[in-house]
Amino acid sequence: MASVISDVTCPECGYEYCLSDYYYKSNERFISCGRCGYHRIDAKGINLKEPENEEEQEGKGIGAYTFYPKEGKVGQRGCFGKEKQREEFLNWFEEDKDELEEATITKKIDGGWYQIDLFTREKTKIEKDTPIRRSENK
Ligand SMILES: [Zn+2]
User: Fold this and answer.
1) How much distance in Å is there from the Cα of 46 to the middle of ligand 1?
2) Which of 1, 12, 70, 119 has its CA 20 to 30 A from that of 47?
3) 101 is in which domain, residue-wise?
4) Do 32 and 69 fall within a single domain?
5) How far separated are the first and last CA of the chain, in Å rounded?
6) Which residues line ion ligand 1, judged by CB < 5 Å?
7) Rounded to whole angstroms, how far apart are CA atoms 65 and 97?
8) pTM for the whole structure
9) Do 122 and 96 lie in a common domain?
10) What is the pLDDT of residues 6-21, one digit of tens each?
11) Helix, strand, coil proportions of the chain in percent (round to 5)?
12) How much distance in Å is there from the Cα of 80 to the middle of ligand 1?
């Protein structure tokens, strides 16, 4: 389904590349932060700064993930709401990493957000204005 993707500032961590994905046919907007994992659904495409919709769902996150399979090259991204989800993702990665080209998670360490490459274990600090590469850019 067609959607319009744009950047908004994350209301939770201030990240400037928080993703807003607006599905104009259903009038739904999905906001998800690739840095802190904040996520929110605006069921009627309401203004970000004036939440007044009871159908809105939102949650703070503890991080986010991206991965790119070798086959197809279509990447996916998402948010971790709970530590258990991050553990499950890491377990899944260990089992399926032979089929992946790339996988990252984000994590807060000593007050700063980092993107961790699961293959190399390399950590990259994500400042508020550091863009994260996204699946649609590949
Ligand atoms: Zn955020």
Assistant:
1) 19
2) 1
3) 63-137
4) no
5) 19
6) 10, 12-13, 15, 33, 35-36, 38
7) 14
8) 0.81
9) yes
10) 999 999 999 999 999 9
11) 15, 40, 45
12) 12
